[in-house]
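Q: I'm writing a short explainer about Purtative oxidoreductase for a general audience and would like to include a description of its predicted shape. Could you first generate the structure from this sequence?
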Amino acid sequence: MTQRATIPLVDIPIDSLLNNEAAVKGSLVLVTGGASGFGRLLAVQLAKAGASLFLVDLNEVALAALVAEIKGNGGSAASASADVTSTDAQRSAFEACVKVFGRAPDIVYANAGVNGNDNFEEDDGGDAPKPWRDLTFKINFRGMVITSALAQEYWAKSPAKAPRRLVFTASMGGINGIPAGSCYAASKHATLGIWKGLADDLAAGKLSGFTVHAVCPFFAATGILPAAVRFFLAGVPLVAVPTVSNALVYIAAGSKELGNDGAILLPDAGKPTILRAKDYDPLVQEFTDALDSRIARESSNVAAGSWGQWFSDVTNIFNRTAAAA
Ligand SMILES: NC(=O)c1ccc[n+]([C@@H]2O[C@H](COP(=O)([O-])OP(=O)(O)OC[C@H]3O[C@@H](n4cnc5c(N)ncnc54)[C@H](O)[C@@H]3O)[C@@H](O)[C@H]2O)c1
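A: Of course. Here's the predicted structure. Afterward I'll give you a sentence or two in plain language.
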């Protein structure tokens, strides 16, 4: 087995997250789930730094209040109410953004998410498992896939005016898992799968014209955290909500350390750290190395002369095909 490589952590001091925020001046930014929590603070901070905001959320009342607040402070913002699980609704939101600002957004945050009570392991204790309520996956995964696809579709239709970035709000649960939160954690693993897939396609030159990023916060005290979870976490230092939103601003501003595909991990109340897409694989390298050597041994069985097994397998295939005919 090969030695697992140690990946040096590239930490970002919390108080330097906004150092380069002036770089977002003039950018047009679309944020899903922009009416509260991380999305709301992100919008306020970006507007202060001179970006224009297009906010998408289910919560119309909170959207209207936030747009009024940003405009009241001299910023530029508009919004559309949309359910991110619907392609049509998100397309209407992108259309509205183009109508209001005259162009596609430069930076798109796929951020809307829920912490639904849809865990795989929950059933009613009876004979039949309870049907899985998959709303968490629909919002946290399907919603983000739709946002990602629409961003790329709108970018393909128009020339870039500013750096284009696609940003997914994942979670540390998408790396470590979450006790009693299997569905949520799985949805965030899936989110990181989109990030990694797009990053690989960009690196291979199959996609171009934008950068792709993710943030992975540990628990933070937003509306998504139910009282029961807060009780469970009592005494544990959570990530400060502004640290997460400032990490999202850091991504919008771009940096050498972040490159074209950096994700920001916020694994505790301390410094955020950068994970590049190429380093996402070695996290499981030791396992895949072990698996590779096992696969090589198994497939060498035929070469080693186990033709009896080969003959028996092929005979079975012929017999089954004949019986089915
Ligand atoms: N707070 C945490 O502990 C934490 C940790 C890791 C990741 N996250 C992720 O951060 C993101 C933002 O969450 P938050 O913590 O700011 O919570 P939040 O509840 O304050 O914000 C989420 C927003 O998404 C909106 N939303 C929910 N379903 C929607 C839908 N179907 N269509 C459109 N909008 C919808 C909500 O109305 C809300 O405004 C989520 O993806 C969440 O999973 C949160």
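A: For your explainer, you could say: Residues 32-33, 35-39, 57-59, 83-85, 111-114, 139-140, 169, 171, 217, 219-220, 222-225 surround nicotinamide-adenine-dinucleotide (CB under 6 Å).
Q: Perfect, that's easy to follow.
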